[in-house]
Design goal:
The complex is a heterodimer. Chain A has helices at 45-52, 75-82, 100-104, 106-110, 115-128, 145-158, 176-193, 204-210, 228-233, 237-260, and strands spanning 7-16, 19-29, 34-38, 60-65, 68-69, 85-88, 164-168, 196-201, 213-218, 221-226. Chain A is α/β, with parallel strands linked by helices. In chain A, the strands form 2 sheets. Chain A has a 6-stranded mixed beta sheet with strand order 6-7-8-3-9-10, with helices on both faces. A 4-stranded antiparallel beta sheet of chain A has the order 2-1-4-5, covered by helices on one side. The longest helix of chain A has 24 residues, at 237-260. Chain A is globular. The two termini of chain A are 29 Å apart. Chain B folds into 2 domains: 1-58; 62-281, no CATH class. In chain B, 83% of the residues lie in helices and 1% in strands. Chain B contains 8 helices and 2 strands. Chain B has helices spanning 21-57, 63-103, 109-147, 150-156, 161-198, 203-213, 216-242, 247-281; strands at 12-13, 17-18. In chain B, strand 1 (12-13) and strand 2 (17-18) form a beta hairpin. Classes of the chains: A alpha/beta, B mainly alpha. Chains A and B meet through helix 2 and helix 4 of A and helix 4 of B.
């Protein structure tokens, strides 16, 4: 029996008002793996997640989730398919009129679960993302950016325990320590719970750290597809230019480290590049 | 504009000489494009309105949200509606009492106050006051939710925003507006009674006029209008909020437009309702 990819984009084209956003995008995401979509701002990264959630429909091409073409699905079926996915939006997108607990337990409440069960689930999922369950009565704007992102991940996990989790720039705007915690959490969810995920980011360090495979987009075109190691070794001029600042930062951090404390690994706060070494697949 | 352009003396000016066709063609194209955009918006808003009504009429219902909206629109607007109605009713009564006194028909003050307040002023005044307050609140809230991806999050978690966000606001206003209108009418008529005392119209005489013309037909006319006002306010405010773009500035612009369109729309809807009620029902 052929093991179908959990998610697959096949020759997807998408445009808005005659402007091409995605051109012939294809990639599979096998079950239990993380695909990172990397690219500069405006390259169409977040569009991929919106298409996958069925919030937008492609002009042509097919998008398969667990073998089912969602471009052919009825709105009702699409709603069912979405229930198998959790999404962590840019900046968290927590419901600001609800408490942390109501945010995390949102889908459970929607599905009509009893209050005690929801309370218990909220505590479990908050603990799973490293947050104190006592935070459940706080409002989202009382939390730091990193905590909000972790609540968003807890909410995505609580959403009917999804097989797929989508991350839209989960570390953007966070301090290095909070970002590190989020990427560690994403890796842990994949490795311990077998979640299939797509992470959209423009942070090269995060991409190298989290991705099993990386797709690089440039103005809607796939310019690279492969492992982090293959990306680091790629000769393409765009890739070289795109990775240049990251490589320069790694080199500078390494040099500073050698001057200061020979042999010591730099902390994340030293530079963005110090979070991961290029080519070091997780 | 691309393609060949017509040239020729269309506008002849003594100073500047003949202008060319391009000016006229460009002006027509600009007008055409504007008209097309307006028609597209009208079409989208109409379809949105149908969708809002469908969501409000068919289950599932979010009871907690509906109760919250009834509370927000009714209790929250109550004081401002009562105060506005009392003041406006008294101002109207002063005008009427003076004119009626000149005609020697002061005893008709109750009659004229009921007709003016219950059929016309009450629903419109309540509608405009509630529209200003509610449409700004709804548009700002939904606009902020949209710009912070909360609407997408709702959809992603399998919730229909029309059901959760829009329908409760519509149902809330359907319940709140008629109640507030009755309250406003009452205060307006009572205020008129006090003004009448200053013009030697006794309470008994005023009350007789009120009681005689406070007929079910007149009451119903005043109650039909708020139903349509609620549809207008919810449709405009939710539409503006859900289609706002451009972050905080975009939400601000959408909120202003929402208040203006709702308020003017109430006057237009009132005119249409009054005309139809006279023509179709003969009330």
């Amino acid at each position: 029996m052929i093991d179908l990819p959990m998610i697959e984009f096949r020759s997807v084209y998408f445009s808005i008002e005659e402007k091409d956003i995605l051109t012939n995008v294809s990639f599979p995401v096998p079950r239990g793996q993380t695909r990172v979509i990397l690219g500069p701002s405006g390259s169409g990264k977040s569009t991929i997640l919106r298409l996958l959630m069925g919030l937008w429909m492609p002009d042509s091409g097919n998008i398969f989730v667990n073998g089912e073409d969602i471009t052919q699905a009825t709105p009702e079926r699409l709603r069912e398919i979405r229930k198998g996915m959790g999404i962590v939006f840019q900046q968290g997108a927590l419901f600001d009129s609800m408490t942390v607990g109501e945010n995390v337990g949102y889908t459970l409440l929607e599905d009509g679960h009893p209050d005690e069960e929801i309370e218990q689930a909220v505590a479990t999922y908050l603990a799973q993302v490293g947050l104190d369950p006592e935070l459940r009565d706080r409002m989202p704007d009382e939390l730091s950016g990193g905590m909000q992102r972790r609540v968003a991940i807890a909410r995505a996990l609580a959403a009917r325990n999804p097989e797929i989790i989508l991350y839209d720039e989960p570390t953007t705007g966070l301090d290095p320590q909070s970002a590190e915690r989020i990427t560690d959490l994403i890796i842990r969810l994949r490795d311990t719970m077998g979640k299939t995920s797509i992470m959209v980011t423009h942070d090269i360090a995060d991409a190298f750290k989290v991705g099993n495979r990386i797709t690089v987009l440039d103005r809607g075109n796939v310019v690279f597809e492969g492992t982090p190691g293959e990306l680091n070794a790629a000769n393409d001029p765009f890739i070289a230019e795109f990775l240049a600042p990251f490589r320069k930062a790694v080199a500078a951090a390494t040099q500073r480290m050698e001057v200061r404390v020979p042999g010591e690994v730099p902390g994340r706060g030293d530079s963005g590049a110090s979070r991961a070494q290029p080519g070091g697949a997780p | 504009m691309t393609g060949p352009r017509l040239r020729g003396p269309v506008f002849v000016s003594a100073d500047r000489g003949p202008a060319d066709y391009t000016v006229a063609v460009d002006a027509l194209a600009a007008v055409g494009s504007r008209v097309r955009r307006v028609l597209e918006v009208v079409q989208d808003v109409t379809l949105f309105c149908v969708s809002v009504l469908r969501s409000a009429f068919f289950p599932p219902y979010y009871k907690h949200e509906i109760l919250e909206q009834i509370h927000f629109s009714m209790i929250g607007s109550m004081f401002i509606v009562m105060f506005s109605a009392l003041v406006a009713g008294q101002a109207l009564a002063i005008q009427l009492a003076r004119e009626l006194a000149k005609q020697g028909a002061k005893s008709e003050l109750g009659h004229f106050m009921v007709i003016s307040s219950v059929r016309a002023l009450g629903p419109v005044l309540t509608g405009i006051v509630v529209a200003s307050r509610m449409s700004a609140g709804i548009t700002a809230e939904l606009g902020t939710m949209k710009s912070s991806n909360q609407i997408d999050a709702l959809i992603a978690f399998g919730t229909d925003p029309m059901k959760r966000l829009v329908a409760p606001r519509m149902i809330g206003l359907w319940i709140a507006l008629p109640v507030l209108t009755i309250l406003g009418d009452t205060l307006s008529v009572i205020g008129g009674g006090f003004v009448g005392l200053g013009y030697h119209v006794t309470f008994q005489s005023y009350y007789n006029g009120v009681a005689k013309y406070l007929t079910p037909a007149n009451l119903l006319v005043g109650m039909i209008k708020p139903i349509f006002f609620a549809i207008l306010i919810t449709t405009v405010a939710c539409w503006k909020g859900l289609t706002s773009e451009g972050g905080a500035k975009g939400v601000g612009v959408a909120t202003t437009e929402s208040v203006v369109i709702s308020s003017v729309g109430i006057l237009v809807t009132d005119f249409i309702c009054t005309k139809l009620i006279f023509r179709v029902l003969g009330w």
